[in-house]
Amino acid sequence: MVEIVRGIYQVGGSEMSHGQDASVFLVQGPDRAVLIDAGAGRESEIIWNHIQQSRINPQDLSTLLLTHGHVDHIGGAAFFRDKTGCRILAHELDRQAIESGDPVRTGASWYGVTLPPVTVDRVLTGMAEEIPLGGAEKIICLHTPGHTPGSISPYLDRDGERILFGQDIHGPFLKEFGADLDDWRQSMQRLLELEADILCEGHFGNFYSKKAVRQFIEQYLRQHSRWGM
Fold first, then answer.
1. In 3D, which of 90, 94, 150, 148 has the Cα closest to residue 120?
2. Domains in the chain with CATH codes
């Protein structure tokens, strides 16, 4: 388990829980906790043990926020719902893939697994929706389509720093995922405008300065420029 800033932990990932897991983050708020993504479901117990090391009350884990509908992010969703009774949140445009366990749209066929369907309890539809954490704290769920139609990039402000959870903002951009590079470029511009201090990325680690965050996003914008495609 890695504490990123006060009360925000990385509890899963390819080098922390299982090689197929995207990064998993736990955000503790004044009144409740939110889990951001759930890993591929291969070693959910390891992620759960890391969550317990943070000393949260399992009943405080009220929400599991799925940033998009790919198996390395959602495969453990049913496990954590069973453990805590948490509500699952995802965007409307990835909802069908998540709830049906679509082997192509979720990428499950890539991993050679069958993904059990899971019900989304709260469907996000707007450009930016809030998850209250207690007091004045909240997570903003920013709709950032591109990698998938329903990709979201949550962020929050804590102790004077803005922490952005930009899972898979690097891509890939495959037709079978419903990817759209024009949408993605617009999404990345919105993320740059946030001027985040810390970026927690799904597969490439955590970046700890405004400059590093901007450089990460801009390098992929250059790589996927209109002229380079």
1. 90
2. 2-224 (3.60.15.10)
